[in-house]
Design a protein that fits this description.
Length: about 200
């Protein structure tokens, strides 16, 4: 039996240009909800609202099988081309098999290891803190991020975005957008330094 090829970004790019054409509204309001409802019934998926993470092994397996089937049946929608990127089951499984088992965020004393955790895991999860994409004013940006970095519980920072840069709106595709993104990275690193967390993941 041949080992399935792991897809590359180039393969995905080509499929985004040549996949089935679908209107976004049809995808959002018909294809996805109808497929989800069908698979929920097929795999008899019933969630207990009092238990956020399911621990029943049959339910966990059914959720995985339903998710796998949904990905293969529906694919991934590309809003730039209005096309569906399709995958075969063996391609999905090959991607899962070849996926990294751990990643390191940050460096030096601030480095933390991101690895899969079982529902029985006693090791605490990584805590990411920060405004997470929320707009922040220029005059408060540094202080906001420093307040997250100086919390001992926080392992990595997920930064916010500058509302303005030197008073200008960082309009997408403009030079001001580039300046804002560069400034955000510089300011978050400065906030980490001020908090004594140099090397913290970002």
């Amino acid at each position: 039996m041949a080992i399935p090829k792991v897809l590359t970004v180039f393969d995905i790019y080509e499929r985004a240009k040549t996949g089935p054409k679908v209107e976004e509204k049809e995808w959002d309001f018909k294809i996805i909800p109808q497929t989800a409802a069908k698979l929920k019934k097929k795999y008899d998926i019933k969630m207990d609202k009092k238990q956020i993470v399911p621990t029943d092994k049959t339910l966990m397996n059914n959720l995985f099988q339903a998710g796998l089937e949904m990905l293969v049946e529906c694919g991934i929608y590309c809003i730039d081309t209005n096309r569906v990127i399709k995958y075969r089951k063996d391609e999905v499984m090959a991607a899962i098999t070849s996926a990294p088992t751990r990643a390191i965020y940050g460096e030096g004393k601030q480095a933390v290891v991101l690895a899969p955790r079982s529902y029985t895991e006693k090791r605490p999860p990584i805590i990411q803190g920060g405004p997470t994409g929320a707009p922040c004013s220029e005059d408060q940006f540094l202080a906001i991020h420093q307040s997250y970095a100086q919390e001992p519980l926080v392992d990595t920072i997920v930064d916010g975005v500058l509302q303005t840069i030197k008073g200008y709106d960082p309009i997408p595709g403009s030079p001001w957008e580039i300046a804002a993104v560069k400034s955000e990275a510089i300011l978050v690193r400065a906030a980490q330094d001020r908090a004594g967390r140099t090397g913290m993941g970002l």
